[in-house]
Amino acid sequence: MPFWAYALVLLSCYEDICAAGCTVSIVVVVKVRKSIVQKVHTCYAYGMLTDVSAVRTYFAKLGLDQEVADIYLALYSHGPQHIAALSRLSGVERTRIYRLIDTLLESNLIEVDSSQTRGIIKAAPISNLRILINQRAEELKNLTDELELMEQVLSRNSLSHGHTRLQMFPGAEGLRQMMLRELRADTEVAGYTHPDLSTALGNKFEDDLSDDQKKRLEASRRLSDRGLGHSCHIYGDVVAYFYTEGQEAYGFEIHDSHVAASLRSTL
User: Model confidence over 96-140: pLDDT tens digits?
Assistant: First the structure.
């Protein structure tokens, strides 16, 4: 705690004691003690506001939810905890913490001790985020390499084949429309699928699908994942890209038989 915070606490406590008079009873002592605790918490919370905001902002730049930052801060500030205590200290609901555990583990932000009955979660060093940053850098490099391939393919085909068409699909609803179009097409699907695509589509996506469409959806989920931050499905004359980056989701389709054939040959 900074010096000004200690001074504020001591000054406030002195005023409380003086107001109580010369004879200090046990009731006054308890009252003053309670006042000290309240003022310390107030000063500590005030001093932490800037740090909390900075951590949340940095996590957001990495595509991590604010709740991930709050959970990590609670673990970092208060030490290892079980889920119930972590929920109280972080302000994040227990069910939401369970859903975010995988994200925290994949980002190397926590360690879980499962040897105990309820499981204890511990904050990992913040420097572990370098692993995530390096993974993102590799993803960007792969995307850059693939873009060069796309430029070569389009330069060979788009000018000589005027029927090339590009269609954008914004948001999670756009991704669902793209997937429905794919499932309705009676052609084989090739490519690769990122695990986050299932989350972006939502749990209720399959409710209105036919049995055959559900089988085709499950087959698309089993496509090999190249470790990139997006999914690419090639079916018929269509190349469909699905992007899920943190809170953002969007996709686009390239309709061109030559482009689809060229990309399919690289898989």
Answer: 998 898 889 888 899 888 776 667 899 989 888 898 888 888 888
**Residue written as tokens 């390499």?**
145
121 and 180 together in one domain: no
CATH number of the domain to which 36 belongs:
1.10.10.10
109/175 same-domain check: no
CA 140 vs CA 36, 135, 214, 227: distances in Å: 52, 9, 32, 11
* Domain membership of residue 162 as a residue range: 138-266
Distance CA(48)–CA(54), nearest Å, equals 10
Residues 183, 215: Cα–Cα separation, whole Å: 9
Q: Which of 259, 105, 238 lies closest to 182 in space, CA to CA?
A: 238
**Do 24 and 110 share a domain, yes or no?**
yes
Q: CA-CA distance, 197 to 195, in Å (whole number)? A: 5
The values of phi and psi at residue 235, to 5°, are -145, 135
> What's the domain count of the chain?
2
Q: How far apart are CA 178 and CA 186, in angstroms?
A: 14
pLDDT above 50 for 234 = yes
For residues 193-208, average pLDDT: 87
Q: What is the CATH number of the domain that holds 228?
A: 3.30.870
Region 23-34: what's the mean pLDDT? 50
